[in-house]
């Protein structure tokens, strides 16, 4: 098992190194001069040269990459050209919004999807199965920003139970911060729950056709017990895969929802950095997201070995 974990970590580090080269190279070949964009057309050649020197754009590309990757290893993500502050501080500030939002959305989608998927699989071909999967199909088809608008109208405008947008900060109270993230997390969780419910149902139906399930039923075990103790655990591998992918999406792919609810998260930060061509912010945020995806994938691989003894023995 130790060799298995070490192998996954080494693969993750190699992937992270390759991703850093790709991210840095893509940022370098983008058209336009960041210094020229910051100063505008009215900037003098002397001011442009000074700004390029300050940003390190006059140095060789290999040296800039080594300097950048060395800073990442020490926690120094550089300094934002637009915000005039360290990128690490910007990421830390925005992560305080995006990480709780992603965790709340993931937990909510899991608590919705697993019971629905199990319920539908246990009643395959019946009316409850058809209604559950029809609703899930609707959840997959409808975009999350439309859910967000409906939630704002229902719970913020009409019922006035929750705020329609904004984030007061955690210093204003934990409950106030959680209240401001409830509607965004629901808007993000519903489409993800629909996908996860369909995957759970399909995985369970594949497992329910196995010989050991028929053997357990032939021994007289109740159907519910067979479903919970024998089928569900062996059907968790595709479910865990989707959960890992969803967490990465929820952490990075919330640009639209963060703009709908006016949340100062990572998605909004990277969108603003791209529009302002603040390359150092884009590179730092993208590398953080790549690292988070790699860590989540390693955790999912370890979870595979926990739920499936065959993988543990192979490892």
From TrEMBL:
Keyword Cell membrane: yes
Gene3D superfamilies hit by this protein: MetI-like
One term of GO molecular function: dipeptide transmembrane transporter activity
Keywords, comma-separated and alphabetical: Cell membrane, Membrane, Transmembrane, Transmembrane helix, Transport
Main location: membrane
GO cellular component, one term: plasma membrane
Source organism, top-level taxon: Bacteria
Transmembrane segments: 9-30, 101-122, 143-161, 181-199, 235-257, 285-307
Coiled coil: none
Localization per record: Cell membrane
Keyword Secreted: no
Family as reported in the entry's similarity comment: Belongs to the binding-protein-dependent transport system permease family.
UniProt name for this protein: Peptide ABC transporter
Species of provenance: Tianweitania populi
Taxonomic lineage of the native organism: Bacteria, Pseudomonadati, Pseudomonadota, Alphaproteobacteria, Hyphomicrobiales
């Amino acid at each position: 098992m130790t060799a298995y974990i070490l192998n996954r970590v080494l693969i993750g580090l190699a992937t992270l190194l390759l991703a850093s080269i790709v991210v840095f190279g893509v940022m370098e070949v983008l058209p336009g001069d960041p210094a020229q964009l910051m100063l505008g057309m009215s900037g003098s050649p002397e001011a442009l040269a000074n700004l390029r020197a300050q940003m390190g754009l006059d140095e060789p590309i290999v040296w800039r990459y080594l300097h950048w990757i060395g800073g990442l290893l020490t926690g120094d993500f550089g300094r934002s050209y637009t915000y005039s502050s360290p990128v690490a501080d910007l990421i830390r500030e925005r992560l305080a919004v995006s990480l709780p939002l992603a965790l709340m959305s993931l937990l909510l989608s899991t608590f919705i999807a697993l019971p629905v998927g199990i319920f539908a699989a246990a009643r395959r071909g019946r009316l409850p199965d058809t209604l559950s999967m029809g609703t899930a199909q609707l959840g997959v088809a409808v975009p999350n920003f439309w859910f967000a608008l409906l939630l704002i109208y229902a719970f913020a405008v009409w019922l006035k139970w929750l705020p329609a947008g904004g984030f007061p900060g955690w210093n204003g109270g934990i409950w106030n911060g959680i209240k401001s993230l409830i509607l965004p997390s629901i808007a993000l969780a519903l489409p993800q729950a629909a996908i996860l419910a369909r995957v759970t149902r399909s995985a369970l139906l594949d497992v329910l056709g196995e010989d050991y399930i028929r053997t357990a039923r032939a021994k007289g075990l109740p159907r519910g017990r067979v479903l919970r103790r024998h089928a569900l655990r062996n059907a968790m591998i595709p479910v865990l895969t989707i959960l890992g992918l969803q967490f990465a999406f929820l952490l990075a792919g919330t640009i639209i929802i963060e703009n709908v609810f006016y949340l100062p998260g990572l998605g909004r930060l990277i969108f603003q950095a791209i529009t302002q061509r603040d390359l150092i912010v884009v590179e730092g945020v993208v590398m953080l997201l790549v690292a988070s995806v790699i860590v989540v994938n390693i955790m999912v691989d370890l979870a595979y070995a926990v739920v499936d003894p065959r993988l543990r023995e192979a490892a």
